[in-house]
Design a protein that fits this description.
Layout: E1 2-8, E2 11-17, H1 25-38, E3 44-51, H2 57-72, E4 76-80, H3 84-93, E5 100-102, H4 109-112
Helix pairs in contact: 1-2
């Protein structure tokens, strides 16, 4: 799995490429948690998942954990441009009822949500 994460204002935007499964779920957890620990001003996390062909229960657990962590901070987890396979798993698991699902999303949308550079 390849994760490219960057801080944009009060959000983290991370593009994920590859399967989100037991073999690499901890990699995503560590990457996101490192940024959350580094920047106390982070409220929202956007995971761009158009190149994620598969998510297993370990991957869902990481997503649910980040959702809870962000909720405690008053923020939210967003799944941006999920692949059809990733969307299906999130819908079947009920995760799509908790997190924001953003189709046709791009980083310019952050300004519309009021994400500030600070």
């Amino acid at each position: 799995m390849i994760i490219n994460a960057e801080k944009i204002g009060t959000a983290i935007v991370a593009r994920i490429q590859g399967e989100l499964d037991m073999a690499n779920a901890d990699q995503l957890r560590a990457s996101i948690d490192e940024k959350l620990d580094q920047y106390e001003t982070i409220r929202d996390v956007y995971l761009i998942c158009d190149a994620v062909p598969f998510i297993d229960s370990s991957g869902l657990a990481v997503l649910l954990g980040r959702y809870r962590k962000l909720e405690e901070r008053g923020g939210k987890l967003f799944i941006a441009n999920p692949s059809p396979q990733a969307r299906r798993v999130m819908e079947l698991s009920g995760l799509s009822k908790l997190v924001g699902i953003c189709d046709n999303w791009n980083p310019a949308d952050l300004q519309q949500r009021g994400v500030t550079n600070g």
